[in-house]
Design brief:
By secondary structure, this protein is of the alpha+beta class. Helix content is 33%, strand content 21%. The strands form 4 sheets. A 5-stranded mixed sheet has the order 2-1-10-5-6. Strands 3, 4, 7, 8 and 9 form a 5-stranded antiparallel sheet that branches. Helix 2 crosses helix 5. The longest helix is centred in the first third of the chain and has 29 residues. The radius of gyration is 29 Å and the shape is globular. 45% of the residues are buried.
């Protein structure tokens, strides 16, 4: 028997205070475990941290309907909410492990170690993991947490009267000091940054975008309307929506990045560096992107000026033919560095539209959050079937042979963008003053264009809105309607007609399986003069 541990018949029944401190000990041990793991991950690879690794595993196994609900409910904060939820769950488990360790000291320490093994397994099975070193942060953190819990529990196991008792003061001193030390070490690790992230940031700073061989035409003077509250024609990079499954944004070193093109119908496989890709013929285009999770009137749509190389030219060079020309592959599967797969119809990529491998966005290298160093852009298709970020592989295959990431989760394999119009101003539940109120917003139907926008007040007749100048059929279009507002509660509704003459339907449908549709409306209360 360990001479430092009291004999079983010398240990008295724990008090309520002992139990509270034991639960606190479990919480402190878990915190130290995560802090140490975070510190080690900053040296190994940030994505190998246990919270991120387990979080990504949870994301991959979450039903699509739940993911869609999270995006609608929490917006771009969905990842933060998920991580906070994981931490809250771990905290509850840690409290229980602390109570377990009060009676079964070794078993409690082994429970902490078991969670470390779970984190290590999640890290090494990530799609972007290529080294067993990804297991190290979780294992080292678990070892630290298990050892601390074992020590803290030993301080709490109270002998009977007349024997030596370490005391609760020692428990509190050890718990506080280790917690503070772990916090300081993790903070220093974060401040120092990851070598891989530093290299990636330096590589992005060194990128000099080439001058486009085919520049985008100047935006027509009348494309941007001077109406307060309307979405700007060009969405600034900082405001461009972000919807993806990455809990931590991949930071890719442009110098080490490679793009491989291979698969069915490829006569000549290609592997390109970023420098080689940027040396090809480049084009610049204004293109609006939309997320399939965007509800009617939602914010997940934006317009930017993209710089890249035509994807169809790259495919032709590799010998790829579209199905209409007898090519065997009807699906292009793009793979991201984080393991995401996105399937895109080959026919649409090669039908003459400006499908790009983009490396520039609004005059600068792609931000990391939007896919640096390279992402796909295909006008007219929702992002989940076209806009692969952090792309590293292109494989030609068929829809029958392979289902990309979102398809088994209930989303359609092919998803053209649906015609939509949105009221930006006045906002729903706004209180404008009586008189002339400018109703304004944007409408989009990428690769078909917008021909007409109409506004209706309450159940009155549809009135034509004034359309801003059209940049191209691949961009959204601003519109405005001067409304003579009378006091009271009113409902404003908008609908659009695309370039083919098709008007968007009235009935609202959910985002799954291939995008929402329906008329957008807002309710306002007009105040008297």
């Amino acid at each position: 028997m360990n001479p430092t541990e009291p004999a079983p018949d010398d240990v008295r029944e724990p008090t309520r205070t002992d139990r509270l401190l034991a639960a606190l000990g479990g919480l402190v041990a878990a915190y130290v475990s995560l802090a140490v793991a975070d510190l080690v991950a900053s040296r190994v690879r940030p994505e190998a941290g246990p919270v991120l690794a387990i979080g990504d595993a949870v994301v991959d196994r979450t039903p699509a309907v739940v993911k869609d609900w999270a995006i609608r409910t929490f917006g771009e904060s969905d990842k933060v909410i998920l991580q906070l939820g994981i931490l809250a769950l771990l905290a509850l488990i840690a409290l229980g492990i602390g109570l377990l360790a009060l009676r079964h000291r070794l078993l409690g320490a082994l429970a902490v170690a078991a969670f470390g093994l779970l984190g290590a397994l999640a890290a090494v099975t990530r799609p972007d993991s290529d080294s067993a070193l990804d297991a190290v942060p979780s294992l080292v953190g678990a070892a630290a947490g298990a050892a601390l819990l074992y020590v803290l529990t030993g301080l709490l196991r109270a002998p009977r009267a007349g024997t030596a008792r370490p005391g609760r003061r020692s428990f509190l001193i050890v718990a506080a000091s280790t917690g503070l030390a772990a916090t300081g070490a993790a903070a220093l690790g974060r401040a120092a940054g990851s070598p891989a992230e530093e290299n990636a940031a330096a590589s992005r700073a060194a990128v000099r975008l080439p001058r486009p061989a085919s520049p985008a035409p100047p935006v027509p003077a009348g494309a941007q309307l001077d109406v307060p509250g309307i979405s700007p024609f060009v969405t600034p990079n900082r405001d461009f929506y972000r919807v993806d499954t990455a809990l931590v944004v991949p930071k890719v070193d442009a110098g080490r990045w490679r793009l491989r093109l291979h698969g069915s119908g490829v006569r000549r496989e290609l592997t390109l560096t970023l420098r080689e890709l940027m040396a090809r013929r480049t084009v610049e285009r204004d293109i609006t992107l939309a997320c399939v999770s965007n509800e009617v009137g939602g914010p997940y749509v934006g317009n930017a000026r993209w710089l890249g190389v035509p994807l169809a030219e790259l495919l032709r060079e590799a010998g790829v033919r579209p199905p209409s020309e007898g090519g065997p592959a009807d699906q292009l599967v793009a793979r991201s560095v984080d393991g995401m797969t996105i399937g895109t119809p080959v026919e649409e990529i090669m039908d003459g539209r400006d499908a790009l491998l983009a490396f520039g966005m609004n005059g600068e290298p792609l931000p990391f959050t939007h896919g640096f160093p390279v992402r796909m852009i295909v006008p007219g298709l929702y992002g989940y079937v076209s806009a692969c970020k952090w792309i590293e592989s292109i494989e030609l295959t068929t829809f029958d042979a392979y289902d990309a990431y979102w398809v088994p989760r209930g989303w359609a394999a092919q998803a053209p963008v649906k015609t939509q119009a949105r009221i930006d101003t006045p906002r729903s539940f706004g209180r404008p003053a009586a008189g002339t109120v400018m109703v304004a917003g944007v409408a989009w139907a990428q690769h078909r264009g917008i021909r007409r926008v109409e506004v209706r007040v309450d159940e009155g007749p549809w009135q034509d809105a004034r359309l801003a100048a059209e940049d191209s059929r691949d961009t959204w279009r601003q519109w405005t309607y001067p409304w003579t507002a009378t006091p009271g509660r009113h409902t404003l509704t908008v609908r659009a007609t695309d370039g083919t003459g098709t008007t968007q339907p009235e009935r609202r449908t959910p985002t799954m399986p291939d995008g929402a549709q329906g008329w957008h409306s807002v309710v306002v209360t007009v105040e008297g003069a």
